[in-house]
Each structure stands twice: as C-alpha cells, then as structure tokens.
Amino acid sequence: MNLNIWLTFLLASILISLSPGVGAIKSMNSGISYGFQSSIPTILGLQLGYGIQIFIVAIGLGAIITSSAAAFLTIKWGGVLYLLWLGIDKWRSAGSLVSIESKVNSPKKQFWQSAAVNLTNPKATVFLVALFPQFLSSSNTSHETQLLLMATTLIIVDLTIMFSYAALASQLNSFIKSESRLKLINKTFGSFFILAALALLSYQKN
Asked: DSSP of 130-188, one letter per residue?
C-alpha cells in the first residue's frame, strides 16, 4: 500500500469514527453518565469488539481474494453502493442521541457490555466489508500486510476519537444532546459518505 492510498484510507477512517454511530453514542453516553476517566473501560471494550469484527472480515476477504476475483469485484461494487446508501440514510436520520444509559458502577461490566455492543453490530461488519476492498491494491505488498495496516489504522483512529467524544461529552453535555446540532452532524457526514461513494465509483479501474 503506497502512501497516497494509506492517507486516503486514514481520512476515511477518521470520517467513519467521527460519524455518529453505535460506538460514538456509547462513548458520549458514557462520558455524560460517568465522566471521562470512568469511561475508559467502555471505550476499551468497544475496541475489543471492533477489533474482533475487523479480524473476522479481514480473514473472510483474504479467502475470497484467493478463491474468486469475480466475487471480490462484486463485493467491491456492492461496497460502493452501500456507502452511497449509508450517506443518504445519515442525511435523513433524526438528531437523537438516545437516552442516557443507567449507571453501571463496575468497570468490568462497562467493558464487556461495550465489547458486546460492537461485536454484535451487523452494520459494522457490512461497513468493513464495504470499505476494505476499496483500498486493496495489487502492489508488491501482500494483501495480508495491507489488511493488517488498515486494521491497525482503524483501531488507533477509533480509539483516539472515542476518547475525544467521551471527553467532550463530559464537558459539553447540553451541546452534545442538542437535536438540531446532531441533525447537522448527521447531514454533514452523510454528505461525506455520498461524496466518498461517488469518488470510489471513478476509482474502479485499478
């Protein structure tokens, strides 16, 4: 994977983590309910679930790449369409953070609940299946190495942004829960996903 492709993937990773989703909502709710420091188990749990999802998807894609180029190309085109649909869905979604979670005093319970949230989130699996093929190239670097680099990038970026969400939420309670502001955030990132899908449509030649 050359530097330009990785930088593009890095940007995509940042947009993915910034976009309001299950992990972001969980992190913000935890920051509001417990404060920043007590949100650490929640965020680490999210990364465990996310990491397992990434590993499963990477293994599956690796098998598909070696067995069927046509199947991989189908997944790649399906990924573009999914990103387009996701952008439209984000644009139309309401500005709701959902209710603040009840107090959970045990850090261990926070950790495992959060891991389960990401591990059982089917949207995360579909999104990863849609995302990875767009950045895999037939360079001298093996597909396994490229997938490992992308997985590491996703986890580091998501960890950083989830901590930032929890910290901001613990300080900006009323701002984070504003329906109008959340609607604007959803529309903004929905637009980014649509633009990304359109850009990837013109990037199918390689």
From this structure: HHHHHH---SSS-HHHHHHHHHHHHHHHHHHHHHHHHHHHHH-HHHHT-HHHHHHHHHH
